[in-house]
């Protein structure tokens, strides 16, 4: 629909309304820069590979959205006209591998020597705790974007540093702590991030 | 922002834009009437109960939405201005129970004597097949809304009727077939739909 001013000139909305791309959204919506993008793509490709070769069924959950207003135009699909990003109450990825329930969150940082714990949330930590209690396998995959180093850190280790922070300690894990408690994953071609080889160790 | 006609009269959009409630959306977006609502609420309550008493960690996945256009107003949260409902590529619910990976879809019908198979989709069936192959437990929970009868039907049985349809047979399962191959779940107070008691049988 077009609006015109009394002088006939077309009205142009001044509200910034950008064409949306998943990439852009990710970059802009996440408050810490470019974090979160490439890692997600790599993991999606990895999971697709695992699915294709029949190794595991692991998916990323859809982004949770709070829908406020929906249009139902005649003869066409419902259009969501107003919605907001919601904070997830669980982790982003889960699925099944050799009968094991797998559950993890993936995050990146542009820091060089430490990983900020503010990347995670209280309810994600409690979710992972619950998962472990029910004999699932919970962990985080973290990436230092600048050096492209990727680590799998089991929930138990994350929890240790989380508790330290809650007790007034530092708000991040040092890279050294991650190296000592986690498992480095080298970037591959197919799959890109072969985290299930690490999960094999955790299962034992 | 307000628009005014040259005569000063306020412009009112004629596009139907309704205040959104999850309930309404569910009722209107789903093509088969009121199906899908109460069952979802009951299952969410049931899963919350399981979580609270430490019995299992099972969640409904967020509704998948294709985001097309996002506004980034200064000083406030990003607003999704255009988005569409996407068909889910997996089932709606998954989680962990006693170390078992649990995966299911839940659907209702207002039919009395049969359950239409069009409630499910090819990719959901293949997803459940994959889950079973990896030693997860896959099933559907179906509800005859008019009589409030709820059944858990294991994937293997659903697959039988799905194949029959694909081979040119009937497009639904009869209630009798469901009674013979599934397990009826009686409605309770807490939890509302105690499907894990049935899952206990399936694990053995």
UniProtKB/TrEMBL annotation, chains A, B:
Annotated Mg(2+) binding sites: 90, 92, 105, 124
SUPFAM superfamilies (alphabetical): Restriction endonuclease-like (SSF52980)
Record lineage: Bacteria, Bacillati, Bacillota, Bacilli, Bacillales
Keywords per UniProt: Cytoplasm, DNA damage, DNA recombination, DNA repair, Endonuclease, Hydrolase, Magnesium, Metal-binding, Nuclease
Annotated site residues (Transition state stabilizer) in this chain: 107
Protein's name according to its UniProt entry: Holliday junction resolvase RecU
Xref: InterPro entries: Resolv_RecU (IPR004612), Restrct_endonuc-II-like (IPR011335), tRNA_endonuc-like_dom_sf (IPR011856)
Protein's job: Endonuclease that resolves Holliday junction intermediates in genetic recombination. Cleaves mobile four-strand junctions by introducing symmetrical nicks in paired strands. Promotes annealing of linear ssDNA with homologous dsDNA. Required for DNA repair, homologous recombination and chromosome segregation.
Reactions performed catalytically: Endonucleolytic cleavage at a junction such as a reciprocal single-stranded crossover between two homologous DNA duplexes (Holliday junction)
Recorded family membership: Belongs to the RecU family.
Enzyme Commission number(s): 3.1.21.10
Record's subcellular location: Cytoplasm
Top-level lineage group: Bacteria
Free-text remark on how the cofactor is bound: Binds 1 Mg(2+) ion per subunit.
Cofactor(s) it depends on: Mg(2+)
